[in-house]
Amino acid sequence: ADFGEIMNAAENGIDTLNIEINSPGGSIFDGYTMYQEIKSLQDRGVYVTATITGMAASMASVICMACDKVEIVQHGRMMIHDASVSASGNAEILRKSADLVDNLSADIANLYAAKTGIPSSEVREMMKAETWMSADESVSKKFADSIFDTKANYMASLLDRFKPDAALTEKVIGLESAIVDAENQIS
């Protein structure tokens, strides 16, 4: 619910969204909701960047696939695996649960494949093996787009503080013009 409220507030007020992710994952259906909210923002013209600051495992890695750009810190990790559920009941209920897990895993493999260009069947094998990827592996396999350079990003952030404010610059130009006009009237 909180994520949905954030997305609703953001949809009209921003043109970029930066998400920091450090998560072991969670509910598939909550993750699908987050994935879809990010896609909806993109449909409205919002550019979304995910920065993996520690790990993006399980459903957190799927959420990354919705983003326009995925960055990962040098020591970060990404993990993909088959969907899992807890089930109890008779044999028929357990068979239905197994079918559900297979279907969810296939859907998730398609999301990874769409981002990475790796065939779904190959991604599915990676998921079955529970694949952990370093930052370099995440980038080389296209689960992430780049390694986040903390030093360069800090310097860029620092330099942004010294960029002139356009509105303030306009005010200064206006004041300078008014002073020149006043001086011309006095002369």
Structural notes for this entry:
- With 187 residues, this protein is α/β, with parallel strands linked by helices.
- It has helices at 2-10, 28-43, 59-65, 91-116, 120-128, 135-140, 150-160, 166-186, and strands at 16-23, 47-57, 69-73, 77-80, 131-134, 146-148.
- Strands 1, 2, 3, 4, 5 and 6 form a 6-stranded mixed sheet that branches.
- Strand 1, helix 2 (28-43) and strand 2 form a beta-alpha-beta unit.
- It is elongated, with a radius of gyration of 24 Å.
- 22% of the residues are buried.
Shape verdict: elongated
Number of helices: 8
Helix content: 55-70%
Spans of at least 5 consecutive residues with low confidence: none
**Radius of gyration of CA atoms, rounded to a whole number:** 24 Å
What pattern of helices and strands is seen along the backbone? HEHEHEEHHEHEHH
Strand proportion: 15-25%
SSE class: alpha/beta
If you average the pLDDT, what whole number results?
87
Q: How many strand units?
A: 6
Largest sheet: 6 strands, mixed
Give the CA-CA distance, first to last residue: 66 Å
Strands, helices and their partners?
Blueprint: H1 2-10, E1 16-23, H2 28-43, E2 47-57, H3 59-65, E3 69-73, E4 77-80, H4 91-116, H5 120-128, E5 131-134, H6 135-140, E6 146-148, H7 150-160, H8 166-186
Parallel strand pairs: 1-2, 2-3, 2-4, 3-6
Antiparallel strand pairs: 4-5
Helix pairs in contact: 1-2, 2-3, 4-5
Summarize the structure.
By secondary structure, this protein is an alpha/beta fold.
